[in-house]
Design a protein that fits this description.
The chain has 543 residues and is mostly beta strands. It is 14% helix and 37% strand. The protein is built from eight helices and 35 strands. Strands 1-8-7-6-5 form a five-stranded antiparallel beta sheet. Strands 4-3-2-35 form a four-stranded antiparallel beta sheet. Strand 3 and strand 4 form a beta hairpin. Helix 2 (33-51) crosses helix 4 (99-108) and helix 3 packs antiparallel against helix 4 (99-108). The chain binds heme D. The site of heme D has 23 residues, from helix 1, strand 9, strand 15, strand 19 and strand 23. Its main location: periplasm. It catalyses: A + NH4(+) + H2O = hydroxylamine + AH2 + H(+); nitric oxide + Fe(III)-[cytochrome c] + H2O = Fe(II)-[cytochrome c] + nitrite + 2 H(+). This is Nitrite reductase.
Length: 543
């Protein structure tokens, strides 16, 4: 089946890699240096997400020169122009690329890919800055805000994170960060947020300072999506980790200063065909509560790494073969099982973090996308974890309690029908009876600007739709409603209403009990809000 518009929008986001040198390959049609540079830029922005920086193929087909030269310029032009039912977008007929650009790209693809620069220890050291040394930081909060209920909110296109007081909804500070921060993770003590920009810049924000500010920063690569802190007892705030898309590696750092300590490449063999992959990107990383370990999804190889940080110089890594295209995921309610999407494989991989093994590979339909997922006690099947999907309306519930409900453990127990495909995140809270499901990438505004909410004690009743974007009362724009996130008490749920950079956006706070509007946070500086991370819920893995 062809990919939906939502799936396409999700994959096609730009990747800001620059600096590859022009390569001239025998047998390929001529192009000028300017054309090569322009094509390289377009390739990174539009194509690399699916076909890979080195064009070895990922969710898209491989585009190595043995293949592209055989197809030739005219064939490639037609393919880029019209797309294909297998999921290739119609870049020409949709008006996104001009004839001239398509002609350039078709020739560019017949030359070997320019290799983007590496980023090793010298580059990391060079970019590493400690603004406030640990011994100069305050010992207790220098303000009266409730640190535990603070939210870190990504202001994507502003290159900032807003630190918002969950009690008063006041923006406490706008903190300059990397570009388009993907996620923020609270440290185990709750005093820091670590953020990762798409440009692979990590910022450590100290919430005790008045106002909260960046105390250390480092750039760990050219492009990245994940950051995490050590969670195991006795290692609170000691080790930080970030994973990169390019170069394909992860780096272990000092948790207080971000001093880089060890870089480990993820280049290696794929789990299925056991072929070498030159650019397996690091997707989600979670800190284990079972052992002093980080659990790392390596996307293209489909390997899940359990990296033990007890002795970084003699690093122990358990490699669990799961399924290709590992992406996002979160813990079950017990904190023993890591539930993670192998999205283009249409599987949820379940890792037993205690016994360090693959517990199950659960089949689900068409691109599961859980975020961190949602845990609740199902009236019939006991504890379950759920995910929504990009490719259809399914909300798939998987049993997670092998002790008391062994017959349902790691089986799909129920599939709810939501508003439609194009869903990215679902969320609930132990104090809540609601299960929220967004659909920001659904092609119809009626769905992308609203959210569905189920009563978990009466799932058969179906969902109610809340007009979140309308409640925000904004000017024109896409106003996609994205990523539900609870406050610490679990009695409010926050949504981003995400519009374009020049348009008005907002954060909408809903009363979880009454499902009524409680508060709207908006204004000139609330630019393109996306991810929101509550300090307490994020560090305790409550979702
Ligand atoms: Fe995300 C989580 C990668 C597009 C907002 N996103 C993640 C994670 C990964 C990832 C690997 C898990 C991190 C972790 O837990 O350690 N995201 C990618 C992509 O590769 C992709 C598909 C395309 C891209 O080029 O980035 C992509 N993501 C998006 C978006 O378009 C979103 C909506 C806005 C944006 O910033 O680009 C977006 N992603 C998010 C958010 C989370 C996330 C808000 C964390 C959700 C949570 O509740 O934990």
């Amino acid at each position: 089946p062809g990919a939906t518009e939502g799936e396409m929008a999700y994959r096609g986001s730009p990747s800001p890699i620059e600096g590859g040198k022009q390569v001239v390959t025998p047998g390929a049609p001529a192009m000028t240096e300017a054309e090569f540079e322009r094509s390289q830029q377009i390739y990174f922005e539009r194509c690399a997400g699916c076909h890979g920086v080195l064009r070895k193929g990922a969710t898209g087909k491989p585009l190595t020169t043995d293949i592209t030269q055989e197809k030739g310029t005219e064939y490639l032009k037609a393919l880029i122009n019209f797309g294909s039912p297998a999921g290739m977008p119609n870049w020409g007929t949709s008006g996104e690329l001009t004839d001239e650009e398509i002609d350039m790209l078709a020739r560019f693809l017949q030359h070997d890919p320019p290799q983007p620069p590496e980023w090793g220890m010298p580059e990391m050291q060079e970019s590493w800055v400690v603004h406030v040394a640990p011994e100069d930081r305050p010992e207790s909060p220098q303000h009266d805000y409730n640190v535990d209920n603070m939210f870190a909110v990504t202001l994507r296109d502003a290159g900032e994170v807003a630190i918002i007081d969950g009690d008063s909804k006041e923006v406490i500070s706008y903190v300059p960060t990397g570009y388009a921060v993907h996620i923020s993770r609270a440290s185990s003590s709750g005093r820091y947020f670590a953020t990762i920009g798409r440009d692979a810049k990590v910022d450590l924000i100290d919430l005790y300072m008045n106002p909260p500010q960046v105390v250390a920063e480092i750039k760990i690569g050219m492009e990245a999506r994940s950051v995490e802190n050590s969670r195991y007892e006795g290692y609170e705030d000691e080790i930080a980790i970030a994973g990169a898309y390019w170069p394909p590696h992860y780096v272990l750092m000092d948790g207080q200063t971000l001093e880089p300590r060890k870089i480990v490449s993820t280049r290696g063999m794929t789990v299925d065909t056991q072929e070498y992959h030159p650019e397996p990107r690091v997707a989600a990383i979670v800190g284990s509560h079972q052992h002093p370990e980080f659990i790392i999804n390596v996307k293209e190889t489909g390997q899940i790494l359990l990296v033990n940080y007890e002795d970084i110089d003699n690093l122990q890594v358990t490699t669990i073969g799961a399924a290709p295209f590992l992406h996002d995921g979160g813990w079950d309610a017990s904190g023993r099982y890591f539930m993670t999407a192998a999205n283009e494989s249409d599987r949820i991989a379940v890792v037993d973090a205690k016994d360090r093994e693959l517990e199950a590979l659960v089949p689900v339909e068409r691109i599961p996308h859980p975020g961190r997922g949602a845990n609740f006690v199902h009236p019939e099947y006991g504890p379950v974890w759920g995910t929504s999907a990009l490719g259809n309306a399914n909300i798939t519930l998987i049993g997670t309690d092998p002790d008391n409900h062994p017959e349902h453990a790691f089986q799909v127990v129920e599939i709810l029908e939501g508003q439609g495909g194009g869903s990215l995140f679902i969320k609930t809270h132990p104090e809540s009876d609601n299960l929220w499901v967004d659909t920001p990438l659904h092609p119809e505004a009626e769905k992308s600007q609203t959210v569905a909410v189920f009563d978990i004690n009466n799932l058969d009743a179906g969902y109610e739709v809340l007009p979140i974007a309308e409640w925000a009362d904004l000017g024109p724009g896409p106003k996609r409603v994205v990523q539900p996130e609870y406050n610490m008490a679990g009695d409010e749920v926050w949504f981003s209403v995400w519009s374009g950079m020049e348009e008005e956006s907002a954060i909408v706070v809903v009363d979880d009990k009454t499902r009524e509007l409680k508060h709207v946070i908006k204004g000139e500086r609330i630019i393109t809000p996306t991810g929101k991370f509550n300090n307490y819920n994020t560090r305790k893995d409550i979702y």
